[in-house]
Amino acid sequence: MSAISRAIRACASRRNLSVQAPAAAAAGAGLAGRRAAAGRDGRDRRGGEEKKDGRRVQWVFLGCPGVGKGTYASRLSQLLDVPHIATGDLVRLALASPGPLADQLTEIVNNGKLVSDEIIINLLSKRLEEGEEKGELGFILDGFPRTIRQAEILEGVTDLDLVINLKLREEALLAKCIGRRTCSQCGGNFNVASIDIEGENGGPRMYMPPLLPPPECESKLISRADDTEEVVKERLRVYHDLSEPVEEFYRARGKLLEFNLPGGIPESWPKLLQALNIEDPDNKRSAAA
């Protein structure tokens, strides 16, 4: 991993990113050279054939805040037996740790801004360094890259297999984000929004039922400080401004798969597996949310 570490530091430096060692020193190390066949049995579940070079998948999930990147990336991570690395989770862990970085991130997040490349790369570096110590292979990145500069750095140190761009209608995104809740006691994630939207151009209605908590969690639900309509709209605006170049970057390389979510998890999960040509013969994850 040290070789990739040096590579991403060099790439970041060439793009004038103020990446600090030793945290950034592991970033490239975790991003390139983690190539082995998908699945615990060493077989590529996209086609059922073992990859000739013994690689595990190296995938990225793109999509607006609240679209469900974490949900689907996590399910695929379990199915393919590769780590799911979500930069949003890394940011939230940093927010929960006292210090100047937490104060800086609180101001950024509460105002609906995107966290800087420098901070994201440093957080990702630390996570990859920890993964190396555990012997992790392959990855599904969620929330990185979010800017063209990040995409260029990633391109310089690894060869991604696939970039999955999840899409959802904006009115559904707003409702999903505003409806998010977390149990302050058990940490479970829920959503109180019931989304029922007319289909576009005569298409089918979009229905996404709420994901309600069990009775013991009902009185302990809290919402994120940044899950207000004003902040969510600002996050979406900023995301769209930055996402188009990133999408085009991967589209031009023939690596972008655009997937329009047709509804909630029960409807979308099997269709996503079909789009990826993945089978789950053990049926370990039911489609139910």
TrEMBL record:
Matching entries from Pfam families are given as:
ADK (PF00406)
Q: Does the keyword Transferase apply?
A: yes
A cellular component annotation (GO) from this entry: cytoplasm
Key words of the record: Kinase, Nucleotide-binding, Transferase
EC number assigned by the record: 2.7.4.3
InterPro entries, sorted: Adenyl_kin_sub (IPR006259), Adenylat/UMP-CMP_kin (IPR000850), Adenylat_kinase_CS (IPR033690), P-loop_NTPase (IPR027417)
Q: What is this protein called?
A: adenylate kinase
The lineage, from the top, is: Eukaryota, Viridiplantae, Streptophyta, Embryophyta, Tracheophyta
The gene behind this protein is LOC100840281
